[in-house]
């Protein structure tokens, strides 16, 4: 049974399958899948890019939600901390944030371990560092989107929950959160597309994403324009597929609002 599913997944592979994108170039081309071309390597880069973006999204949303809650808190220290966080990570270039996380965490962990007598070399996983850096950047922007959505919800909604005897956490879950998602969805859609493009930064720390794989192929084959054109096409396809999927989600959210 596992062999059947493996064969089915191979047949449905949009890049290296029988009707995949790279199969259209022919088995003898430089982007063919297998030993004759770079198709397998680039397909792996596409998987890494998609996995990184999907892994970053929920982490960034959770952190952004907490920052948005802190920004509208009655506690001045929480509001100050949220303001400092968003100012720093919205102001720093994404590439610089990636370097700080990737190299800074290594130095920090090494210093902590050295204090316990361990002098070995510490290396941070490139995927984890990329996800952490992109998550803090995504959260700093998404927190502003979510904060605007919070402010668009009337305070009477909270008071209505209190009048019904709901705990504030239940009011947030059952009353506020559904409205928050609907209001913030257009802004979060734009941030997702930005996140998808920002994954290209991780190529500088050695993660085998689309840009790194096509860059290696371009240097080895001396066909820079061709392979970077392939990279452009792949990013555009991912953006198009994302736009179509997010369009369905937005229409679903509007229909559910209409029924209420």
From TrEMBL:
It comes from the Bacteria. Residues 46-246 form the ABC transmembrane type-1 domain. GO terms for molecular function: transmembrane transporter activity. It is a multi-pass membrane protein. Its main location: membrane. InterPro entries: AA_ABC_transptr_permease_3TM, ABC_transp_permease_HisMQ, MetI-like, MetI-like_sf. The chain crosses the membrane at residues 49-71, 92-118, 124-150, 171-195, 225-249. One of its GO terms (cellular component) is ATP-binding cassette (ABC) transporter complex. It is found in: Cell inner membrane; Cell membrane. Keywords: Cell inner membrane, Cell membrane, Membrane, Transmembrane, Transmembrane helix, Transport. NCBIfam families: HEQRo_perm_3TM. Belongs to the binding-protein-dependent transport system permease family. HisMQ subfamily. This is ABC transporter. The lineage of its organism: Bacteria, Pseudomonadati, Pseudomonadota, Alphaproteobacteria, Hyphomicrobiales.
């Amino acid at each position: 049974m596992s062999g059947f599913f493996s064969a089915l997944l191979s047949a449905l592979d949009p890049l290296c399958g029988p009707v995949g994108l790279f199969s259209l170039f022919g088995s003898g081309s430089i982007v063919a899948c297998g030993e004759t071309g770079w198709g397998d390597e680039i397909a792996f880069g596409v998987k890494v890019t998609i996995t990184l973006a999907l892994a970053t999204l929920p982490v960034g949303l959770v952190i952004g939600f907490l920052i948005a809650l802190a920004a509208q808190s009655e506690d001045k220290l929480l509001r100050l901390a949220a303001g400092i966080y968003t100012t720093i990570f919205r102001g720093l270039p994404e590439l610089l944030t990636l370097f700080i996380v990737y190299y800074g965490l290594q130095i920090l962990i090494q210093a902590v371990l050295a204090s316990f007598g361990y002098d070995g070399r510490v290396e941070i996983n490139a995927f984890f560092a990329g996800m952490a850096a992109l998550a803090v950047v995504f959260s700093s922007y998404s927190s502003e989107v979510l904060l605007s959505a919070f402010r668009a919800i009337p305070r009477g909604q909270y008071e209505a929950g209190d009048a019904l005897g709901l705990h504030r956490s239940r009011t947030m879950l059952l009353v506020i959160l559904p409205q928050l998602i609907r209001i913030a969805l257009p802004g979060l859609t734009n941030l997702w597309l930005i996140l998808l493009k920002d994954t290209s930064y991780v190529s500088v720390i050695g993660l085998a994403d689309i840009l790194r794989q096509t860059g290696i192929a371009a240097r080895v084959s001396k066909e820079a324009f061709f392979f970077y054109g392939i990279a452009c096409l792949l990013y555009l396809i991912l953006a198009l597929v994302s736009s179509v999927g997010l369009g369905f989600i937005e229409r679903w959210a509007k229909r559910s609002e209409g029924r209420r």
